[in-house]
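Inputs:
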Amino acid sequence: MKLVKTIFKNLFHRPVTVQYPDAPAHVTERTRGHVEIQIENCVFCSMCARNCPTGAIHVNRTAKSWSIERFGCVQCRACVDGCPKKCLRMETAYTEPGPQKKTDVYTQAAEETA
Amino acid sequence: MSTRSIVPFGPQHPVLPEPIHLDLVLEDEKVVEAVPSIGFVHRGLEQLVEKRDFQTYVYVAERICGICSFMHGMSYCEAVEKIMDIELPARAKYLRTIWCEMSRIHSHLLWLGLLADAFGFESLFMQSWRIRETILDMFEESTGGRIIFSVNKIGGQRRDMENSMLRGFLTKLDQVEEQVKSITEAFLNDHAVNTRLRGVGILTKEQAYGLGAVGPFMRASGIEFDMRMRGYDAYKDLDFRPVTSTECDSYARCKVRIGEIFQAIDLIRQAVDKIPEGDIAVPVKGFPNGEAFVRVEQPRGEALYYVCGGGKKFLERFRVRTPTFANLPGLLQTLKGCQLADVPILILTIDPCISCTER
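Outputs:
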């Protein structure tokens, strides 16, 4: 009899799964989705690259660029916690799945001289 | 004497979530001997400790396994804290205990699902995993990750759980308890399930002692021993007695794990009642110099961690003895004399985690 109850419940119940990526994934306030940078505040101290357990972050001080291998990042949040300028933040949305490994490069615009 | 034949089992097999290979020596349909071979998913994580900062290595340590990830990270931290003489704040200890017990519930529910799948009870498999989703959602709400939590750090925790969140969890756990009760009926009293589990894979108390079995596999053979009795973290303040059974068969292992789910829910309730206010981490200065052993009770059994540091940024040695490795001799003993059709279930009853074992 228990089984009959389960069968009817499942027949009239909506699916518990979400059709990601067509439907948005369920996230919470603390979900670690992906790392974002406010490049204008960055001082290129390389603390994030040093804290990264997978070596996914690369900082180039001379070219003033900050890059992250999106598929190398494991979303541990170590870079965000270690950032002295607090210019890194963790977004709740996951990065999009894709056929190729990609690296996002952010470059700081050169300061205008007066 | 009948003819002997050797049947290779694994590394790829529908019942195995991870690769292990067994050569089964058969006499007709009866297994006479089983010869295991492992080494398909070795990743060299222990060696990596020499190349990663000891504080960063926490994130590597918790990736040893996807199911006991919290406890791997936590035990590594405990070992380093032991070397560096760091006393954790009380709240951090309680937080660790709560997350440990939540890991135990989700690991055991995963195992129950896999067991149901192994004897072909698809509906029960789906139901077990649906209940597990609630626990994973709780993890995501509190830590930000469903499987890999990244909340441990040396000297404490990176995330706190507010009291309102903890109370919300208790309400959810009440529902989980009800749902687990309903599937318990099917696991323990269903006639078809009983015929697959009862009297299959006997491991006596003496054999369990002699072969060094650990965890629920050992407690199902009637040995009342649990690493949590050591009283690490907040366990010394909580009231609990290990769940045991004297039936020594696969049914007993299933019963012990179901009992441990209810016990874990009870331990979380006790911990939430007693959790003190305060800091969740202490600052860490210097580098670890010395060595330490730590033993903890993972969902699958006792795990042993050894950490050796030489006063530098990089540690010298890290070693993990995982419960699956300790349970392999016991598994081979239970396989002797069983029927070929029972082999998948017997392999599952030790709750094998091969990627843990090979690191």
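Remarks. The beta strands of chain B are 4-9, 21-27, 30-37, 152-153, 156-157, 289-298, 301-310, 315-321. Chain B has one domain: 42-358.
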